[in-house]
Write a structure and sequence with these properties.
Radius of gyration: 15 Å
Order of helices and strands: HEHEHHH
Structural class: mainly alpha
Largest sheet: 2 strands, antiparallel
CATH architecture: Alpha-Beta Complex
Distance between the termini: 35 Å
Number of helices: 5
CATH class: Alpha Beta
Shape: elongated
Length: 120
């Protein structure tokens, strides 16, 4: 296992470069310069506006909405994914199975949790 991934796993934080909708990664630069982030590099901080959308996304998925309808809804909110301009079905598919949303970090491999079954 690479050093960066091992450190992230051992400390229970995210490795550098992970971008997760609804969270802001506290970088080493933030932890060095900003006193409120001292010693917290690699941790995820909740972005409240995005967190509300994530919560509603999971609720809509659990109620049986399709991933296509979820993508249409997310794009209608005006929010943007971490990469790209629009939420694609594949983006939401990975988002709904990302372990970070259930409180577990990730290492160099993407580990997924099967959320409520959403129809594609």
């Amino acid at each position: 296992m690479a050093g960066r991934s091992r450190k992230a796993r051992d400390r229970g934080v995210m490795p550098a470069g992970c971008r997760i909708f609804g969270y802001r990664l506290i970088t080493k630069a933030h932890a060095t310069v900003l006193p409120e982030y001292h010693g917290r590099d690699g941790e995820l901080e909740v972005v409240d506006a995005e967190a509300q959308l994530v919560l509603e996304l999971f609720e809509r998925c659990a109620s049986g909405q399709s991933i296509r309808s979820l993508a249409d809804w997310m794009n209608g909110t005006g929010a943007h994914p971490p990469v790209g301009r629009r939420f694609a079905r594949s983006c939401l598919h990975h988002m709904l199975r990302n372990t970070a949303y259930v409180g577990r970090g990730c290492d160099s491999r993407v580990r997924q949790v099967h959320a409520a079954a959403c129809r594609a």
